[in-house]
Design brief:
Number of helices: 5
Order of helices and strands: HHEEEEEHEHEH
Strand content: 15-25%
Structural class: alpha+beta
Number of domains: 2
Low-confidence stretches: none
Distance between the termini: 19 Å
Number of strands: 7
Mean pLDDT: 88
Shape: elongated
């Protein structure tokens, strides 16, 4: 009754619908996971800020993302790193400087943003001097996300410490500096250093995953409907008149 080509198309349709439906459910799972993580981060952000002593008492592997921090320490400007990151459409750098607390704990602080020099684009921006000891307020964040980078730049044989970078690998940074980074912090407190701290609000990414899930489910439905229309309904409409005659 059905040709070999029909069965092959049925098999391909079943595989297509199965794969796209699986990807849709995978995206829904990602959305649910993101919502759980974001709920935990929202709870952390609502808690009182941690000071030096409270941070030092935490377990070494604890990661209280978005927990507020108010820390006292001294900058280690010789180990500052300037990451290529635009802000509001303008080219510039995130200024990342380690802060050493009195106990010796080191926190890497995303201090702010500075514009790029239009003449010397790889020149590190000048940062105003800070007092020997200062208080820095902000939020505990994840290390900076990785951007696309040319292999020649990522695998450069130059072993000297480079301040201007595209990305920051925390393990490599610790190896280069000899520092042990306890946490990464995004500074929100005001300071007379000339840096911008107009950080964008981090919107929920769960809706993005739900949008992808809808697209995968829609593709599965379209694939199934195309098969039913061209390989079942249309063929029945063609065969039925000839059979009645």
């Amino acid at each position: 009754m059905f040709s070999r080509q029909w069965w092959l198309l049925l098999l391909l349709t079943v595989l297509f619908v199965g794969v796209t439906t699986s990807l849709g459910f995978w995206q829904l799972g990602r959305a649910h996971l993101r919502e759980q993580i974001e709920a935990e981060q929202t709870q952390n952000a609502a808690l009182p800020a941690l000071n030096n002593a409270q941070l030092d008492k935490l377990a070494p592997d604890s990661q209280l993302l978005y927990r507020s921090l108010v820390l006292e320490g001294a900058w280690l400007p010789q180990w500052s790193v300037f990451l290529n990151r635009p802000m509001q459409g303008q080219a510039g750098f995130w200024v990342m400087t380690p802060l050493r607390l009195e106990s010796g704990t080191v926190v890497l602080v995303q201090r702010g943003w500075a514009p790029r020099d239009p003449v010397l684009p790889n020149k590190p921006p000048a940062i105003k001097n800070a007092p020997d000891t200062l208080q820095v307020g902000g939020q505990w964040i994840a290390p900076p996300s990785r951007l696309m980078e040319l292999d020649s730049a990522a695998n450069s044989a130059d072993t000297s410490f480079s301040q201007v970078r595209q990305n920051l690998d925390l393990a490599q940074y610790e190896h280069e500096t000899g520092l042990k980074i306890r946490a990464v912090m995004r500074q929100n407190s005001a300071a007379a250093d000339g840096l911008s701290r107009d950080w964008p609000n981090l919107a929920s990414r769960a809706q993005t995953n739900r949008g992808y899930a809808f697209q995968w489910f829609a593709m599965a439905v379209v694939g199934l409907l195309l098969f039913l229309w061209f390989q079942v309904f249309r063929k029945r409409r063609i065969v039925t008149p000839s059979a009645s005659s």
